[in-house]
Specification:
Oligomer: single chain
Helix content: 25-40%
Shape: globular
CATH architecture: 3-Layer(aba) Sandwich
Mean pLDDT: 95
CATH superfamily: Flavodoxin domain
CATH topology: Rossmann fold
Length: about 200
């Protein structure tokens, strides 16, 4: 089994990266082949909305580090996506990755011109979302501002034909980048999730 972990935190060796790595470590114990990608180390652009990908569905026309990574995603059995929660949503790096998944989307039937909604992405993959959040659960201030996040995240794997979706949350990290590393229980849970993949 091939599993890729993508860390969309701009902070090096912080909580999101720690947890994604722990999941991959657990998967390796059961013989999985894993790969770790830190988006902060790549040159990536946001989607241009140029529609160039509609000429060759699934192929973004941009020439940055994200274009080959998008193609690589199609070859993995499981995809672990990690992001810190900034301003009640995902990081900017994570959002750029998701926006570029648009290159797999077909919204017009090429023969009839009718509106359609389908993704040219291999179905049946497992998806895991790792979210590290400073606030406790439930949040003491404006808890309703978190309600939309899981709903929005679910759209991504559902659109891509996922076979399974799991969420792994870290709550109450505040701004301590080592909070995950300090919690043996949290690391063990992450590794167990990876073993289960």
């Amino acid at each position: 089994m091939k599993i890729i972990g993508i860390n969309a935190s701009p902070r090096k060796n912080a909580n999101t990266q720690t947890l994604v790595e722990a999941i991959l470590s657990g998967a390796e114990k059961n013989g999985a082949e894993t790969r770790m990608v830190n988006l902060r180390e790549l040159k990536i652009n946001g989607c241009l909305g140029c529609e160039g990908c509609k000429k060759h569905l699934g192929q973004c026309v941009q020439k940055d580090d994200l274009t080959p990574l998008l193609q690589d995603l199609t070859t993995y059995d499981a995809i672990v996506l990690g992001t810190p929660v900034y301003w009640f949503h995902v990081s900017a790096q994570f959002k750029m990755l998701v926006d570029r998944l648009y290159s797999f989307m077909q919204h017009t039937d090429p023969e009839t011109g009718e509106a359609v909604m389908k993704f040219e992405f291999p179905a049946g993959k497992k998806f895991v979302f790792v979210l590290s959040r400073g606030d406790a659960q439930p949040a003491e201030v404006l808890p309703q501002l978190y309600d939309h996040l899981n709903e929005w995240l679910n759209i991504i794997p559902l659109s891509l034909g996922a076979a399974n979706i799991e969420f792994f949350h870290q709550y109450g990290a505040e701004i301590d980048r080592k909070a995950a590393r300090k919690s043996e229980e949290l690391i063990q849970k992450a590794e167990a999730l990876g073993e289960g993949l």
